[in-house]
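User:
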Amino acid sequence: MKIYFAPLEGITGYIFRNAYEEIYGSVDKYFAPFISPAEKCPITPREKKDITSENNKGINLVPQILTCKSEFFIEASKELQAMGYKEVNLNLGCPSGTVCAKGKGAGFLPETLALQRFLDDIYSYAESEDLKISIKTRLGYYDPDEFYDLVDIFNSVPISELIIHPRIRADFYKGVPRKEYFAYALQHCKCPLVYNGNVYTAQDYDELVSQFDRSLDPVMLGRGLISDPSLADKLKGNTSETDFTKLKKLHDTVYHEYQKIMSPDINVLYKMRELWTYWQTLFGDNSRDIKKLLKAKKYAEYEAIVYGGLLTEH
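Assistant: Predicted structure:
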């Protein structure tokens, strides 16, 4: 089966991707955190650094674009094609308030007429330039029934893959995904589909397969794969347990690579804290140490907790 790694802003940049690919290597396609093109600046130097081929050797990476203006999308696509990319992804799922207020991400979904014009423009360009455009979407902004009209719009353009996170914007990441709408997509969408949402364990995946009565291949993992980096291996049948030796190597690699490019201590520790908010689910008996770790401000304090117990007890 094919497994896609969802983009998580601030987490799945090139440092984490390279470390994960080297240590686990069970992901078939990575999606980069979104690029937000602006007038006269399709891609910032910081965004370009994250997706340049030099920083992503051996990784099947798809850049993601967040915009509601077709001319911005096309200009960013031109730069990405010049960098060697043959596929880009449109973000129609980000629920962030600041993003949606600008009509981007999930905030673009209720503007169906504008969205149709936007898609007509970018796919007309894509067809002329032999560029694949996939889309990552939510069901709607206000109501999941918005999805019925969205499916008609999506069916009008040649989407290479439609990645569906079956929640509306107001759900953010809470509650149970509205799987019945993905079932509708399976029956009515013309393009290849990818499921994304709340797959944290192999059992979660098996329950989805049972519910839809079909294999979900590919499947996109995000928070579940961060929370348990062994999840892709588990879904592919390579292991049935979380590999703490690999987890320690992943931690150490990411930690030391951040130290090479960031300072002072606290900036690196902010990045590591974000990862530990996910990893803490694997250390249920060490909640006290996790709380201390999340407050650490110096390397020595942090390392005393991590190497003095958490990552040496398994």
